[in-house]
Structure formats: C-alpha cells, structure tokens
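Two quick folds needed for the group meeting slides. Do the first one here.
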Amino acid sequence: MYTKLKEYISEITQEFESIPDERKKTLQDVADYISKELKENNSAKLNFICTHNSRRSHLAQIWTQTAAAYYEIDGVETFSGGTESTAFNPRAVAAVERAGFHITSPVGENPSYEVKFSEDADPMFCFSKKFDDEVNPDKNFAAIMTCSDADENCPFVPGTSFRKPVTYRDPKESDGTEKEKETYDERCLQIATEMFYMMSRV
C-alpha cells in the first residue's frame, strides 16, 4: 500500500477501542454475514447505500475494500449506490486523497474516479449511481444503509440477502464553512476506523 495510506491505517487500527460498544455490535453483525458468505459461497458482496451516493456510501465502499486487502481476505466485493444519482462529491474525494489514496481527476457532471490503495492494485471505479445500477449486484448481497434517509425511504432493496443500517452523520452540513475540511476528514476517519474494525472481525 502507498506509504501515506499505510501510516493512516496504522493509526486507525490503534483506535478500535474508541468505537462505542453498541456500534461494535452492529459492525459485528455485518462481519458475521461476511464470514458466513465467504464460508458458504467463497464471496461476499456489500452494497453501501446512501440517498445521493455522493459521500458516506463511497467512503464506506472504499475503506471496506481496502480493509479486505489489508487483512488479506479474499472474495469480498464492495459497491455503492443511492436512491438517486448525483456525483461523487469532490470534498469527499479530497478527503480520501488526504488519507493517502491515489485518485484520477476526471471531469464532467458525474465523473468516474479511479481509486487505488497501492500501485499494483486494481482500481476501484467510483461514480454516483442508483443502488440497482447494472454495475451493482442484483442478488445475494448485503445492503448496508449508511444514512438514515436511505434506510427510511428505501424499505425494499431487491435481491438482498442481508440488510443493516450503519449510519453516519452527513459531512455535507459543513459545506461552504470554515469547518468543511475538518468535518470531511473526521467523517473519513470515523468510517475508515469502523470499516477496518468490521473487517478485522471477519
């Protein structure tokens, strides 16, 4: 993995005790699902869903896939989607870059970013899309709801074999303020820490 990212990961893996016990139980439920799927099917597919698929769902997708590689857990595939399509927010993209990922900088209204955690890793292609987009799985996958709006307004996700709300506060609330960068970095760190804890329990 890239040096800066390795240093970031080294820090977050020392912070698992900061996760509240109730939160750990929720993350353990997802870890148990992953373990079961890997044992029975040799693969586990996770689709992280948030209303606009622009911030939290992408962060969870990226960090979970990275954690699977870090812990050498084969067969884990991560995806993300929303109840509508917008764009992978550039503020969230910047937070991921500051953590140490290498990301292409495409242009356009809804660009597809290539996100890499190491030079020899296959890139993750991240762009905003609906949860049932053709690039996402349509059966035997977990729907992980990363925002309460998506959980409430998306009561049925076709094809899912497991559903769990793992919600996060929206960093969008800081957009255009002096706290913007700090807030996005905090949310990136929180999601990274929890997704790494989750994958360490698989």
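Then this one, please, same format:
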Amino acid sequence: MAAETYAETRAMQVTAPAAAVRTGPGAGAEQVDQLLFGETFNVLETAEGWAWGQADRDGYVGYVELRRLSPEVIRPTHWVGAIRTYGFTEPSIRAPVAGLYSLNALVTVEEQADERFAKVARLGYVTLHHLSPIGDHLSGDPAGVAERYLGAPYLWGGRDSLGLDCSGLVQQALYACGRACPRDSDLQQGLGTPLEIGADLKGLQRNDLVFWRGHVGVMLDAERLLHANAHHMATAIEPLAGAVKRIEAAGSGRPTAYRRL
C-alpha cells in the first residue's frame, strides 16, 4: 500500500510446530493463514500477548500469538522434506517426542548427532533423511507432492500436514518444488499460462491447476483432480467432471480458469 512513510518492523521467528495467523488478537478470531516452524513474521505492533504483522514467506497479514514467536531469528540451513517428522529430546526413536513438524518447516541443523539423527536448534533431534538442505527441492512434480497430503483434514487457513485448505495445498506443493506461490486461490490464478478448456474438459494434463470462485485443485492426469475441499472435509481425489458437476449444483458455478505450470 502506498504511503508517505512506513513504520519499522521487527522480525520474529516461529518456534511452535505451527502458528495460526488470525484476523484479530484472540484465539476465537478466524484463522486466515498459518506459519510453520522456522518461518519469520515481521511484527509491527504487540499488545496483550499478540503480535500484528506480516508473514515473510507469503506476505499474509494478521495476528499471531507472541508465545509462538522468538525475537531471536536464526538462519535456517535445512527444511523438512517429509510430509511430517518428529523431533525427539534425544537422538533415539525411544526418546520423548518434542513436537511434530510438517513439510516445508524451516530448521537449523547444529550438528549431526550420529548416522541417523541431526541436532536441530529449538527443536531437538530429527531423522536426517527427513531433512533437505536449503536450495534442494523434492521434484518438479507438484502433483506428486500434493498427493502426500491425501486424506489430510480440511482446515480453513491451514498450511500444515495435519490440516490445510485448497490454496494451502497448492502453495505447499509448489514450495517443496522450489517455486514461489501466493497464499490465496485468486492470486494463484496468475501462475503459469492460461489454458482454453471447453465444456468437455479435454486437454488437461498432470500439474494443471483448475480454479473456481474461491477454490483451486491440481490435476493428477487428464481426468482426476486432487484438492483439499470442504465437501469431503479432506484432501481427496475425484474425477474432474464429477467435481465440476457437484460444485456447479451447489451454486458455485463452473471453473473460472485453467492454468499450466
């Protein structure tokens, strides 16, 4: 937003497995986004246990609980490349669990504890093969990454593997493939190149995105759509033709755009 002057922000870092970004300073306010462990939040104001600011990774603005943030920001060296992984208090699978962390969480490896575990700052010990160095990516196949979330519960504003929404699913899949991605489906319609798809729905392929008003899904092949949706209340696969018919019957109209990544 244009202004004559801008206030200075203070970067803070998420130390919880995930932190809700809300529309107001209270646990009862709507969750509109989610921060993952290790992500930074640029804070403008704090009051009564809440910080108001902007997510550094996707630009979302809202309120985050201060207890989930640290004023000390440490540079990440790796990111979680598994759909989810446990942090343990000791380098042993029998040790108590320190937390459960999702794909794309950002971590700082302090040392390799042994051939199996890495010691991670603020987290504990994590299985080495669940971590990828910053700059390495899973693949060039976002649909394959999105399939890892199959069955995850639908959660409005969610971005982690325990619950996420339609645009959160697309964003997380693209992040894991090393691609930037906006948070909301209307902005995601600017990704890739437009496709001219007729009423017969022919001409689509794997990784094409299909948009409705306020919704998005990714094609697994020419006919099947994967999307986090409130009908199934989960990340689910269904024939695109069936989804189009169902969503239109519910009053949300036909697809508004098709994009090829």
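Slide caption for protein two: The domain at 10-70 is CATH 2.30.30.40 (SH3 type barrels.).
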